[in-house]
Design a protein that fits this description.
The chain has 382 residues and is α+β, with helices and mostly antiparallel strands. It has 5 helices and 22 strands. The strands form 4 sheets. Strands 1, 16, 17, 18, 21 and 22 form a 6-stranded mixed beta sheet that branches. It has a 6-stranded antiparallel barrel with strand order 2-11-14-13-12-15. A 4-stranded antiparallel beta sheet has the order 3-10-8-5, with no helix packed on it. Strand 19 and strand 20 form a beta hairpin.
Amino acid sequence: MSAISTWRIPMSWPGRAAAMALLATLLAACGSEQPPQAEGRPVGVVTVEAGQFSDDIQLSGEIQAKKDVGLAFRIGGRVLERPVNVGDRVKAGQVIARLEPALEQNALAAAQAALTAARGEVGTARNSFERQERLMAQGFTTRPRFDQALRAQETAQAQLENAEAQLELARDRLGFTELRTDVAGVVTERRIEPGEVVQPGQVVVQIARDDGRDAVFNVPAAVLDNHLADARIRVVLADAREVSAQGTVREVAPQADPVTRTFEVRVGLQDPPEAMRLGSTVIGRIELTTAAIVAIPASALTQQGRAPAVWIVDPDKSTVSLRSVDVLRFDPGKVILSQGLEPGEIIVSAGIQALHPGQRVTRLPERRPSPRQQAAASALPP
């Protein structure tokens, strides 16, 4: 039978008291030490910065004249000639078309003859009145004869004025047989041919004036809601992107096209190059700039219930809190917010999965994108 012996060191009372005193001293020394302070959870952070968000929209359109003029005769008649064709460049005062002038020439001759006769009547009536006036002064005529001579003179004078007016009208009508343009431009359409009989006001040719050009686009209704009037528009030729011009919205159609359901928008071009000819296909890039907004990394977005939210870092306490935000749109790698954050606030951009309100965090140094990364991000399509 084996036995385990327990050795006990005999200790007297003074020794036992000294050991207890040593143990109490050691316990007191251990109790005086502070427990190590726990460090916060390391997270990536970014500082909120405000800016303006530009949304680019590209539309296809064509170059048109800023003003089109439809020329027409003021009188009717048979077209004698039309010396211009589509594509011809015309100058102010140039003859566009002529009517047969025979009727107007005859009317002018008749008006001239009527004027000559009226002048003779005025001379006869004036002489008769002057004779009656002298006899009336001498008392050798009666008042009725004097009044009759006076009325005859007034009637003859009125007929003379009417004949002069008819002569001017006949001259104008003869001049109206020639259709002249009062603007410089390019003929874009002809609507009559020699030999046709036209009515007064019937458009003969259409001329695009040289005093400006527009880029015309068919714009969806959704784009019109984005303050299109304040947009900056860059217009380039579809087959030559290096040919460009700047423009601003000049006119927006008040009613949508019944077929395409789009609105016609005319963009006035500033000093367009000669290569932007009428009818050329162009591409307009519309830069719509919003009010001050905030863009955050997509990794910073989380949820509070069903609403989007972000973690806000208190810089004094190094704690986090959850705040709801309003999302304007999602872009590759980032989220555009309309409200919810203020410039200068610090949000968590990495490590949001295991956070809870009030938790202490340790902020890692912010990492700014390199110039190469910024260029790659800016090259992404909207």
